[in-house]
Amino acid sequence: MVAMPVGPEHATLLVSCPDRRGIVAALAQVLYGHGANILDSDQHTDPVAALFFQRIRFDLAELQTDRLTLERAIAEVAERLGMQYRLLYANRPKRVAVFVSRYDHCLYDLLLRHRAREFACEVALIVSNHTELESVAREFGIRFALFPIDPSNKAEQERREIELLDSEGIDLVVLARYMQIVGEEMVTRYAGHIINIHHSFLPAFVGGKPYQQAYERGVKLIGATAHYATKQLDEGPIIEQDVVRCSHRDAVEDLVRKGRDLEKLVLARAVRSHLDDRVLVYGNKTVVFG
Amino acid sequence: MVAMPVGPEHATLLVSCPDRRGIVAALAQVLYGHGANILDSDQHTDPVAALFFQRIRFDLAELQTDRLTLERAIAEVAERLGMQYRLLYANRPKRVAVFVSRYDHCLYDLLLRHRAREFACEVALIVSNHTELESVAREFGIRFALFPIDPSNKAEQERREIELLDSEGIDLVVLARYMQIVGEEMVTRYAGHIINIHHSFLPAFVGGKPYQQAYERGVKLIGATAHYATKQLDEGPIIEQDVVRCSHRDAVEDLVRKGRDLEKLVLARAVRSHLDDRVLVYGNKTVVFG
Amino acid sequence: MVAMPVGPEHATLLVSCPDRRGIVAALAQVLYGHGANILDSDQHTDPVAALFFQRIRFDLAELQTDRLTLERAIAEVAERLGMQYRLLYANRPKRVAVFVSRYDHCLYDLLLRHRAREFACEVALIVSNHTELESVAREFGIRFALFPIDPSNKAEQERREIELLDSEGIDLVVLARYMQIVGEEMVTRYAGHIINIHHSFLPAFVGGKPYQQAYERGVKLIGATAHYATKQLDEGPIIEQDVVRCSHRDAVEDLVRKGRDLEKLVLARAVRSHLDDRVLVYGNKTVVFG
Amino acid sequence: MVAMPVGPEHATLLVSCPDRRGIVAALAQVLYGHGANILDSDQHTDPVAALFFQRIRFDLAELQTDRLTLERAIAEVAERLGMQYRLLYANRPKRVAVFVSRYDHCLYDLLLRHRAREFACEVALIVSNHTELESVAREFGIRFALFPIDPSNKAEQERREIELLDSEGIDLVVLARYMQIVGEEMVTRYAGHIINIHHSFLPAFVGGKPYQQAYERGVKLIGATAHYATKQLDEGPIIEQDVVRCSHRDAVEDLVRKGRDLEKLVLARAVRSHLDDRVLVYGNKTVVFG
Fold it and tell me: C-alpha distances in angstroms, A219 versus A202, A261, B246, B251?
């Protein structure tokens, strides 16, 4: 199940390093020198952290050397300028695992968007601690892996989940209203590769039952937040947020209903940004190139 | 300085009481019976709190009795049905005091809206702990009262402020980015009549420097919240909130700049709702009729 | 397939009439007099058109007479005050037909919301001029009716569609990106009961290919509009609209993608308002009670 | 009256040209080679028009040659690659003329933002066809030039206005709800340097009285559009748009009131983008770098 085959000869270079002069020219030069054609380039300097970030998308169709030679040249520049970087080729679509429990709205939303070719990825796997959504997996022809979890087996089941993710070569885990706290081992191993959707505009209403909390506080907006999962629950780097207006007329179940739409939209935008290699994490923040 | 003389014969009745059958009919009947013509009526039932709320705006131009007789009849119904209520006549515009420190954007915004007849009130007074904005008061022809505050005189100055508010017959105090915590005595005496603007989407980023906090957390939206001031700082009933999108490109000073627009809009909407007698407070929440 | 059984003893009265005094009291009195308990009431006066509108939701559980007697009493008041009205009982959920062609996003969205109990209706029928979405109908267990249309058979096919709608007792037709212009006969027969979704913020970009038009004009927002279908294409009374930001970076296919989300949200809100009996049409405008 | 002195050694290069490989590298190289440090770079390719656009902001503090030599080098690259470009130095703030008639909200908004250092410009001049806003000009210490206009003198007055703009070295004309159609001569001479605010979400409701038109059509959103003035009224390249929700409750005067907030925000964002050299016009569209 593969969607949206963007130019197979395209590649993306994501770079972060201490800010200094000459970075942009150095990277442009090395790419141009090998015949790679820059399609798109976006950059950002954080003056407080004194860090430089860049995303360069380029076309390899008329490369004058080969990929290996280009990779070596980039590695050299990176070492010289103290860069961290990732180089991603479009002809290798990312493999995604979606974790769910009983709520189906985010799952359906992701699968229908994928089918509509909004996401450049393979949905390789649906993982759940419950059986309810197995039929959805079947309907879309995706492997369903059941890991029932209770306090006694949680650690063991997560170990088995990690094994499955590893063996399936998963690049991105999407927690699509998965109702379990993901353990430290998985969060560490897949750091920066697990996106969670929280049903409030973090940092407001951390923890459980955010719609109930929002109702009790009497807010006039409710929100949703997509963030990378970290050891600190609800504290990971935020990728995307949005809100919708509510009023005294909205009971908790109205907030839940309005929130479903938000959760779907916010999660989908975050997943899309990640799949397009637009997100760079630093400290507890993100740069999301537009 | 008086603006927007809505029909001088109009009145508004704001009601809250335990929910029971027959309330709507009883109020409609008493008004109709005296020749008051209902212009607008909005109601709400909170099923969790089992409370009923109603706002009725009516025209007294063809009243068949007199105001006193009508008031007695309403009082009777109110007692029978266990209602709390307020009856407000449009021919007595509310008297407003604006508290400021050094920021001028909310003050200018309120005064220009008033001049454009967006608010049905008199701006009777500008109170400040600093001299900077005295020239703005002069420009708009409004009395400026200076109460410099330091830790040693804070209690005494607030007592004098309350005396001034009392003697001026102030109905509404607007804290337009006033950089002092208002003392318990004033908050108690003017409970439900002091509107504050907080520069975050509460309950996120309570306390000081919310834009700095937002920057550090890396949120993708910043917000502003207008609420009634209570003893618990930043915890009063929320009247209005809004947000604006931000990104990694926004430094703290960009958040401050974007936030100014939000603060102005959110505070103005809250003040307008209050002046139009659209807000009912219960517990720590509000009903804001549309 | 029935969802959201709101209190079976609830009813809604929708009223419009020339504005005059005493209307609110008269209706409240007749309901109270028969033991009907008003749950919710919202009203509006259009001062330009001099028209009065009201929506009253009430509970019949403790009716002291019977429905027929109440109906007669309401009819009497209506005649006396020159009212047009509709009385709708919640225990008779509306029957809905969804018209589609090849796009599946609005159809899926409506069906999933229905399954999540967001809509108080039965989805009785999916009508299409193409076979592509028959499998979706099957998946959700809904009757699928195929009416292939070409210039030579269009009038005849629409006649057969109307017969089917009539025989199925359809209350609401939802044109969920149905790619045919609905004929005058159907539009007249089901006036005020056909909701269409147009993929622009009407009245901008009427007619075909609105995303292409938006791209060419270089707008910074794209929109969607849900409206009742009328003889004048894209000119019917607007129920709901929304927009989303776009930029020079968005190609036509990005606008189409962003637009899908809008179309789904805007259509769903309009359908929900209609199903909740919140929409009153007058002239070419709507009152949508909140 | 000068605000926001951004680094005086900063410069911005705005480039557009037919898309071809090597552009990014060529520009990076020439700047780096002269010791100019790239601070920010944003680019865009329009695949339909086959055009390339770039905005590069750089620091000249450690320039190894001089400005003239750098300018020559850029001119050479530009000629070789068929580029159109503008080079702007931050130490020469733009000179702005604001045209007004009787509405003061956009004028106050611009002047207060300028005073709050949101705009990098001098406000050199306020031009009006009426006397009403002269006092505002005086209050902010800005030259006020009165050009009363009637059908008989319109051409002559505009000629005098152009002379004034020329002699004052005006870089940007802001039509802040100026209630005259600007003549062809001025629009041609200052093409791409006149920003107008239109009080609807263009292309809906072109021409006069857009709020009245919006009211009659019964839209659920009203908007505002900032665009460059061109010969075709209301058809110039759009820089910024936004909308706000309205409902059946809003009379025309409510739309006007809500619209004022939109007009201020949208115009201010467009002016800021222009002053920051973020806007490139091509055909009837704009690229607005973020």
Answer: 14, 18, 21, 27
Please indicate whether, in this complex, the C-beta atoms of B243 and A243 are within 8 angstroms of each other.
yes
Average pLDDT of the segment spanning D86-107: 95
**CA-based nearest residue to A87, from A109, A106, A72:** A72
Q: Where are the beta strands (DSSP E) in A79-130?
A: 84-89, 94-100, 121-128
Using the Cα atoms of residue D229, residue D235, residue D237 and residue D241 in order, give the sign of their dihedral: positive
Given the residues B234, B242, B254, B261, the one annotated as active site? B234
Q: Can you tell me the ipTM of this complex?
A: 0.93
What residues of chain C lie within 8 A of the CB of D201, using their CB?
A: 201, 204, 219, 221, 223, 243
Cβ <8 Å between B108 and D108? yes
From B44, B219, B241, residue closest to A219, measured CB to CB: B241
Instruction: Please say whether the beta carbons of D51 and D83 come within 8 A.
Output: no
Separation CA C240–CA C269 (nearest Å):
7
DSSP secondary structure code for residue B101 in this structure? S
Residue type, B61: A
Q: Is A137 exposed, middle or buried (0-12, 13-18, 19+ CB in 10 A)?
A: buried
Of B24, B39, B45, the CB nearest to C28: B24
Partners of D56 in the beta sheet?
A: D13, D41
Taking the whole predicted model, whether its pTM rises above 0.90 is answered as: yes
CB C63 within 8 A of CB C36: yes
Q: Which helix (H) or strand (E) holds D138?
A: helix D134-139
pLDDT at position C276 over 60: yes
Gap from A123 CA to chain C (nearest CA, Å): 19
| Cis ω before D203 (30° cut-off from 0) | yes
Q: What residues of chain B, 62 to 81, have a C-beta less than 8 Å from chain C?
A: 62
Chain B residues 203-262 with a CB less than 8 Å from chain D: 247, 249, 257, 260-261
**Collapsed DSSP state (helix, strand, coil) of residue A83:** coil
Structure tokens at A120: 């450049």
- Cβ atoms D241, C219 nearer than 8 A: yes
Q: Find the CB nearest D220 among C46, C203, C241.
A: C241
- Residue B108 to residue D112, Cβ atoms within 8 A: yes
Q: Tell me how far apart the alpha carbons of residues B206 and B223 are, in angstroms, rounded to a whole number.
A: 12
**Using CB atoms and an 8 Å cut-off, which of residues 81-110 of chain C contact chain A?**
104-105, 108
- Compute how many other C-beta atoms are within 10 angstroms of the C-beta atom of residue D143: 14
Say which residue the tokens 């515009």 belong to. B93
Report pLDDT for D4. Answer: 38
Does the distance separating the beta carbons of A25 and D31 come in below 8 Å?
A: yes
User: Three-state SS for B111?
Assistant: helix
State how far Cα C45 lies from the chain centre.
22
Q: What is the 3-state secondary structure (H, E, C) of D163-211?
A: HHHHHHCCCEEEECCCCCCCCHHHHHHCCCCEEEEECCCCCCCCCCCHH
B37 residue type, one letter: N
Distance from CA of A251 to the nearest CA of D (A): 22
Is the Cβ pair A248, B203 closer than 8 Å? no
CA distance C23 to chain B (A): 9
SS3 D106: helix
List Cα–Cα distances, C109 to A261, B204, C112, in angstroms.
Answer: 11, 32, 5
* Cβ pairs A/B, distance under 8 A: 87
The two tokens of residue D11 are 């410069």
pLDDT digit string (tens) for B166-220?
A: 999 999 999 999 999 999 999 999 999 999 999 999 999 998 899 999 999 999 9
- Whether residue A71 contacts residue A87, with contact meaning beta carbons closer than 8 Å, is answered with yes
C-alpha closest to that of B73 among B34, B37, B25, B18: B34
- The Cα A180–Cα A69 span in angstroms is 45
d(CA A58, CA A29): 13
